[in-house]
Task: inverse folding
């Protein structure tokens, strides 16, 4: 009985944390609520017999991806006026329509889900089974995922590199130019 | 964890609620960082549905799809946050309504 109540507690925490994350004005506060939500989902994974998925959820989702968000929010340096603008955008007139549409779609999903029966299996699916299946029948999917990650790496490098270069150009182009030309002429003399 | 009998429909209910909340956030926010966070929530909820279905039949396939969703989410966030930096630099704002026109 205890484990079942653990599931319901984790599900409630995940839902409340997600709703709070979606309605915060400050991006960092929203991000912390989102991390709590992901940790609660990891607890659910562990309870339904998927410990490997739970570990991946914590390490990659709550760890790596959320740290990426934190870094970008720190680089943007939004500040107080960003919070004020977000609060202005979050007026009831803005979210009433989307809420109605989301509730309608959720009601449809609820109707479909109500026909599903049977409990989740109590047996654990171990990391060994997952690995054997991943590198057996699903080895092509691993290749596709690796190509996708390579594309993401190249794309984000391209986008981020141009942003950094232009920022430097706009901010202190003259100072950099003079220091560069000095260092280049010095280097030229050194080579000669 | 023996003797645990969570109904599959309850897990799918949680998953669809998370999906609905994520979609609600996607529709009502205008800040591109919150839009990316909502996309993460939606991807995560579908991953929960896959893992629950895999656990229902005692097969590892659900967790494999979860790992594929994880790699999709990682690539999407990397490219999306690169775009966030570009949009902030170009429009001096994170409002998605500023970025409604492509150059071409």
Result:
């Amino acid at each position: 009985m205890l484990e079942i109540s653990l599931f319901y507690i984790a599900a409630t925490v995940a839902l409340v944390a997600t709703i709070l994350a979606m309605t915060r004005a400050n991006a960092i506060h929203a991000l912390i609520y989102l991390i709590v939500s992901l940790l609660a989902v990891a607890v659910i994974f562990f309870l339904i017999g998927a410990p490997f998925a739970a570990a991946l959820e914590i390490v990659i989702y709550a760890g790596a991806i959320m740290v990426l968000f934190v870094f970008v929010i720190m680089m943007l340096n939004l500040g107080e006026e960003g919070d004020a603008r977000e609060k202005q955008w979050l007026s009831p007139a803005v979210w009433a329509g989307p809420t109605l549409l989301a509730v309608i779609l959720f009601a449809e999903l609820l109707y479909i889900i109500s026909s599903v029966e049977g409990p989740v299996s109590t047996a654990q699916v171990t990391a060994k089974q997952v690995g054997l299946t991943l590198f057996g029948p699903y080895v092509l999917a691993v290749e596709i995922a690796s190509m996708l990650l390579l594309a993401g790496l190249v794309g984000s490098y391209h986008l981020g590199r141009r942003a950094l270069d232009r920022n430097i150009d706009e901010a202190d182009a003259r100072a950099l130019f003079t220091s560069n030309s000095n260092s280049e002429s010095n280097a030229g003399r050194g080579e000669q | 964890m023996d003797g645990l009998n969570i109904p599959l429909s309850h897990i799918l209910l949680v998953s669809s609620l998370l999906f609905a909340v994520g979609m609600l956030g996607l529709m009502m926010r205008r800040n591109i960082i919150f839009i990316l966070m909502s996309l993460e929530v939606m991807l995560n909820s579908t991953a929960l549905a896959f893992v629950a279905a895999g656990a229902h039949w005692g097969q590892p396939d659900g967790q494999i799809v979860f790992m594929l969703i994880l790699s999709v989410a990682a690539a999407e966030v990397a490219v999306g946050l690169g775009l966030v930096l570009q949009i902030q630099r170009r429009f001096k704002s994170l409002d998605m309504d500023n970025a409604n026109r492509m150059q071409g």
About this structure: Chain A touches chain B through 87 residues (CB under 8 Å). Residues 184-192 of chain A have pLDDT under 50 and may be disordered. Chain A has two domains: 2-124, 138-192.
